[in-house]
Amino acid sequence: MEPLFALLVGALFAVSIYLFLSKHIIRVLMGAAILSNAVNLLIFTAGRVTREVPPIIGSGTDVLPETAANPLPQALVLTAIVIAFSFFAFLLVLGYRAFQKLGTDDSDEMRVAEPVNEPAPPLGY
Questions:
Q1: Taking the CA of residue 53 as centre, how many other CA atoms within 13 Å lie in the half-sphere pointing to its CB?
Q2: pTM of the entire structure?
Q3: What are the pLDDT digits (tens) for 83-100?
Q4: Residue 63 CB partners (closer than 8 Å, separation 6+)
Q5: Alpha-carbon distance 45 to 90, whole Å?
Q6: Would you say residue 51 has pLDDT above 70?
Q7: At what angle do helices 25-46 and 71-102 cross, to 10 degrees?
Q8: Please, are residues 95 and 89 in contact by the beta-carbon 8 Å criterion?
Q9: Sign of CA dihedral 81, 83, 88, 93
Q10: Cα separation, 92 vs 1, whole angstroms
């Protein structure tokens, strides 16, 4: 099962990088959401995806058995899901406000600080 998750994580990373290279803001936002899911799945898979023994330390022992799933990556993924959702919500509102203000979602047309009809600066000295 873990090699299948490794392929899925690789595919999600590839899709998110492809979406980050787009010039449309909504695609970049979708790339951020897919990247956060890929990282969460990577952390979850690193903690072993076994169901043989629950992650409970029994009486008379000090450590988890070898076949138990590690509970720390599971806790980290739960925290990362909340953080990724809030980050995505912030980026979504930021993209929407930029679209309202500028009238476009194309990042090439969002150059407010650059003059429109002035010649390009010199390319060298």
A1: 12
A2: 0.75
A3: 999 999 999 999 999 899
A4: 57
A5: 28
A6: no
A7: 180
A8: no
A9: positive
A10: 34
State pLDDT tens for residues 13-25: 999 999 999 999 9
Report the distance separating Cα 99 and Cα 88, nearest Å: 16
CA distance 54 to 56: 6
pLDDT tens across 57-116, in order? 878 888 877 777 777 888 888 999 999 999 999 999 999 998 998 888 888 888 776 777
Q: Are the C-beta atoms of residues 44 and 73 closer than 8 Å to each other? A: yes
Comparing C-alpha atoms, which of 105, 90, 103, 94 is closest to residue 26?
Answer: 105
Copy the structure tokens of residue 18.
């492809």
